[in-house]
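Marked as duplicate of an earlier ticket. Keeping the data here for the record.
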Amino acid sequence: MRLSTGTEPVVTLRPLRASDATPWRDARRRNAAWLSRWDATAPPGADARPVSFRALIRRLTRSARAGTSLPFAVEVDGRFAGQLTINNIVRGSAQFASVGYWLDQDFAGHGVMPRAVAMAIDHAFLAVGLHRIEIAIRPENSNSLRVVEKLDIPEIGYAPRFLHIDGDWRDHRLYAITKEDAPFGVLKRYEAQLRDRRVE
C-alpha cells in the first residue's frame, strides 16, 4: 500500500520481514528515549527477557499465519520509518481488531502516521473484511492523540490500568471506528479534509 500526495513523502505499508532487522534495530536504538515512554513492558511475574527482532518476527509471522495479526513496516520514500500492526484480530460475530504503531522521530510531524493508520484501517475493512478497529492511547501521548484527531476517529471510552507500559499499568483512552463511519475509506476522508483546510 502506497500513498503520495503532491510534494508530500511517499508513505508505504508492506509486510514486516526478517530483512528489516538492521533498519528496525537502528531505528529502535536511535529512538530509545523517544519511544520508551510508550513501549509495552512485562508486568511482574511475566517473562521479562528482552525480545530479539528475530524472535519478534517469528512470533508475528505465526500470528499472521493464524489470522490474528498483520504486521507492517512503515516506509517513507523507501526508507524504513517504523512499524504498524493490526493485532488481536477477532472473527465470528465481532470482526474486530486493534492497531498499534511506532514511528522514528526523524519522520514525525509530517503526516506519516495518520496516512499509515488510514491505509491500515482501509486494508482491514476492504481487504480483510473487518468491521471495527480500535486504537488505545495513553492520555499523555499527544502525538498519537493527534493521529486519531486528524483521522476523525471518535473516542469511545476510558480504560484504567489497561496495558503494562513503561514499567507500570497505564490508563488509556479508547478510540474506535467502524466500516460504516467511513464508507468510502478513511484515507479518502482524511485527504478530503486536508484539501478543505488548504482551500480555507
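See parent ticket for discussion. The first strand starts at residue 2 and ends at 3.
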